[in-house]
Amino acid sequence: MSAACPRAWTRAASSRSGLEARQGRRRPVKIATFNINNVVKRLDNLIDWLAEAEPDVVCLQELKAEQDAFPAEPLAQLGYNAVWKGQRSWNGVAILAREAEPIVTRTALPGDPADAQARYIEAAVNGVLVASLYLPNGNPRPGPKFDDKLAWFERLIAHAEDLRSSGAPVVLAGDYNVVPTEADIYQPHSWADDALLQPEVRAAYQRLLDQGWSDALRQRHPTGPLWTFWAYLRNRWPSDKGLRLDHLLLTPDLADRLVEAGVDRWARGEADASDHAPTWIRLAD
C-alpha cells in the first residue's frame, strides 16, 4: 500500500463519525461510477470524494492494483464494504457499498473463458444488480486492439440482453470508452481517428440502448455538454476540452425511479486527480 494510506486512514476515521450520525436518514439511493486511474496512488482522492459525495454504491475502474493490494481497510473505515477484481499494472474493477454487503454474482463477462483481463464485476446490493465495467479502449486502430474492443462489446450486448430479460433491476455502470454522439465531445474532428468515436463502436452502444436500457445522464440532461473525462495532455482540463466516456445504463424500472444525475467535476480539479470525474445518479428510495 502506498505512503498515502496513513493519511487516508485518518481521513476515513474522521469522516466515519459524521457518517454514523446520519444513519437512519431516508434518502434517494445514490450510485456512482469512477475511473480512479490507480486506486492505491489516488486513495486520498477517493477518500476525499467519498466523504464529500456520500454515494451509496460506487463502481470503480482502472484499479491498476493486484488483488491483495486493494485498500479495503481504509474504505471500510469510511463505511464501505468492497468486492473487487484486481490486475497488476492495468485494468481492475470494484464495487463499493456503504453499510451494505455486495454479493458477487460475476467476476468476468461471459462469452470468452480465455479472457483474463479484469474488466467486469457484478454484485447484488440491496435488491439491485450492479455491474462495474471497463470496456477496452481499442487504440490503435485498425488492428487487434480495436477488434478486441468490438468483440468485448458483443459479449457485453449478449449478457446485457440476458440481464434485461431476467426482470431484475440492473445498473450497468462504468467507463465504456465510447463517445456516444458528437454532442458528447468538445471537438469531434480532432478525435476523428480515435477508437472512442468510430461508427461501429457507437452503433454497438446504441444496440445496448435499443434493448431497453436508459442512458441515465442523458435521460436527466438531454442536451448540453456532460464531460466525464479530460485528457492530461494539451491543457485539456483547464480549457474544459472534455468527453463523455462514463455511463450508467438502467433497466426501465430503475429509469422510472431516476430523480437526478450528474458529474462531480470538482474532483477532476484536485491535486493528482484521475483524468475521469465521478459520475452519479440518484434513485427514489
Q: Summed up, what is this model?
A:
The chain is an alpha+beta fold and 285 residues long. Helix content is 27%, strand content 23%. α1 (5-21) packs parallel to α2 and α4 packs parallel to α5.
CATH architecture: 4-Layer Sandwich
CATH class placement: Alpha Beta
Can you tell me the residue ranges where pLDDT is under 50 for at least 5 consecutive residues? Answer: 1-26
Helix/strand/pairing category: alpha+beta
* Count of domain modules: 1
Q: What is the general shape? A: globular
**Rg on CA atoms, Å:** 18 Å
Overall mean pLDDT stands at: 91
- What's the end-to-end separation, in Å? 36 Å
Question: Helix proportion of residues, in percent?
Answer: 25-40%
Q: What is the fold-level CATH name, i.e. the topology?
A: Deoxyribonuclease I, Chain A
Strand coverage percent: 15-25%
Question: Strands across the major sheet, in which order?
Answer: 3-4-2-1-12-11
Q: Main β-sheet: number of strands, strand sense, barrel status?
A: 6 strands, mixed
User: Helix count, per DSSP?
Assistant: 7
Question: Could you give the order of the helices and strands?
Answer: HEHEHEEEEEHEHEHEHEE
Within CATH, the superfamily carries the name Endonuclease/exonuclease/phosphatase
Number of DSSP-assigned strands: 12
